[in-house]
Amino acid sequence: MSDQEPRKQADAPGSELGETARQMRAAEPYISAVWKLVGGAVVGVLGGYFLDRWLGTSPWLLLGLSLVGIGVGFYGFLHAMARLGKRK
Amino acid sequence: MRKAMVLFACLFAGTVWASEQAGEHGVANESKDAEGDDVAGYILHHVADSNEYEFEVPLSHNHIPIHLPRILIPFHEGACTPMADTHGGHGEVYPGLGQGCLDLSITKHTVMMWLAALLLIGSLLIWSNRDKTKLVPRGAGANLFEMLVLFVRDELAIKNIGKEEGPRYVPYLLTAFFFILFMNLLGLFPWMATATGNIAVTCGLALCTFFVTQAAGIRAAGIGGYLKHLTGGVAPWLWPIMIPVEFLGLFTKPFALTIRLFANMLAGHIVIFFLLGLIFMLRNPAVALVSVPFAFGIYLLELFVAFVQAYVFTMLSALFIGMSVAMGHHDDHHHEGGESHDHGKAHHLG
To answer: What is the number of CB-based contacts under 8 A between chain A and chain B?
Structure first.
């Protein structure tokens, strides 16, 4: 394979980011915000469940950490959205 | 067109006749369920990984099994003692990692991966243009490889990662693309198996992409920027919850890569086996009039799918690497058409 030919092609117009990549990068902050919302609840519930099993405090840590997780998830989501709004 | 319609009518008539035959003679037979179970068992046996390589001699019922070496590492005394097989399979069953037995045995899919790697190295050695004085590659193989290599570089790496950073990740993307392609294609040959139809293999490939993605992120943002990105940009007192959330979020992409490749490769093979299995399930050779052409059609589709899956895995890997690189390169981000995304202060370190 030649060294000259690829360079020409790489510099050609239209060799910038593809449409999918552009759209994914544009969507990434929103995906991240949604993951914060869902992930907060998931981590809270799982963390509470396993801590309860380990410490034998069922169901109190499950309940408590689920609420904390959901709260943090909402906070993270709103925080990300607010920052995104400011940037725009 | 007329010929196609006649053929379709024949096939359809064949199916109807076959199903009627099955209704008259087959359903009454009590062994029908057992027959169906056998087909399912046969399919599962053929798509699953195994510790022995079985050659079926054509036009006979002879099987030549080749037992592959077992490598078992016990964590404590007697942890790798064989157990009774409760699933009715043949061969010995060993305890898993949970019982303290690490199984590093060579399996059918391991052999397929080695074979794919050997074929890939061999074909690249033969068809790569090693003569630097000749700029134009000669021969069909060399041209095909050049076309695929340029496609991965220009259409996948540069279009998903960017003109500046893209070429850096081309070697990894090419390795992933050709390795997956060779494994997918190998599975279409008789006596071979599709290693990408094994979730452990696809998980391993996805983990490679995961590590490259994280390395790209660290390289672009610096270790400080990468770690700050993991905090999600929230106040420090929320970090104990937010860090696990962001950490788990890292694994969603490789998880999608793992499941997608595994399920797509496995499904195609199961469909072909089931179409052919219909002949035995309905106990009527006339079903072959329909199921064999259909299975052949799916087989051709599988040939296409082998390329598509290699392409999609590489494309998604490039996309994830590109997103990770963009996290660190704030300025490039705007240049390359993507909107800036917000992860707190991480961008300032890019």
So the answer is: 130
Does residue B233 come out as left (phi exceeding 0), alpha (psi in the -120 to 50 range) or beta?
Answer: left
**Segment 49-68 of chain A within 8 Å of chain B by CB:** 68
Round to whole Å and give the CA distance between A86 and B171: 39
Residue with tokens 């919302």: A37
Residue A35 has a CB neighbour count (10 Å cut-off) of: 21
Phi, psi values for residue B101, rounded to 5°: -125, 115
Instruction: Give the separation between CA B336 and CA A24, rounded to whole angstroms.
Output: 12
Predicted structure pTM score: 0.79
B266-276 mean pLDDT: 90
Q: Which residues pair with B64 in a beta bridge?
A: B55
> Which residues of chain B does A79 touch, with a Cβ-Cβ cutoff of 8 Å?
233-234
Q: Does A80 touch chain B (CB under 8 A)?
A: yes
pLDDT tens digits, B63-103:
888 888 888 888 888 888 887 766 655 567 788 888 888 88
Judge whether B104 and B75 are in contact, CB under 8 Å.
Answer: no
pLDDT tens per residue, range B5-48 = 454 444 434 433 443 444 444 444 445 555 556 788 888 888 88
Q: What is the pLDDT of residues B217-227, one digit of tens each?
A: 999 999 998 98
ipTM over cut 0.85: no
- Say whether residue B243 is in contact with chain A using an 8 A CB cutoff: no
CB proximity A83 to B under 8 Å = yes
B150 lies within 8 A of chain A by CB = yes
First to last CA, chain B: 61
